[in-house]
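Worked example

This section walks through a single chain of length 150. The input is the sequence exactly as stored; nothing has been trimmed or padded.
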Amino acid sequence: MPSSPPPLPRPAATGPATPSGPVSVSRRSAVVAACADAALILLFAAIGRDAHQRGDVITGVLATAWPFLAGAAAAWLALRIWRSPLALWPAGAGVWLGAVTVGMLLRAVTGQTVVLPFVIVALLSLGLFLLGYRLLAAVIRQRNTRRGGA
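Given that input, the structure is written out below as tokens.
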């Protein structure tokens, strides 16, 4: 009598059930991190446009943000950031540097302004935003781990 193959391991159901099944914490973290990255890049673009008093609020913000969003998306794909989306390294640093590097390259090839002061502001601002919330998440996770173990 042939033996049946062992059952495949099932992912842990760590989140609320959905019509398609349980949602894992890591999947939820990846979605939240991707949305946070996009929102913070849009915020960076909106702050910059507001500081320079340019018109066309919605389309202007999108026109400013799209190269950085594309750079962040490229980093997500190249580094498979969804595996550990809230880690400072390589996820946070990868998204940050990908957004700035690819963003500036795309701005240059599409005729948008790329000057040293803007590059510096983008590096500092996006670094603060994209690394900052990941650092805050790490502090909260560490605090919760300490409280749970005490």
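What to look for: DSSP finds four helices and two strands in the chain.
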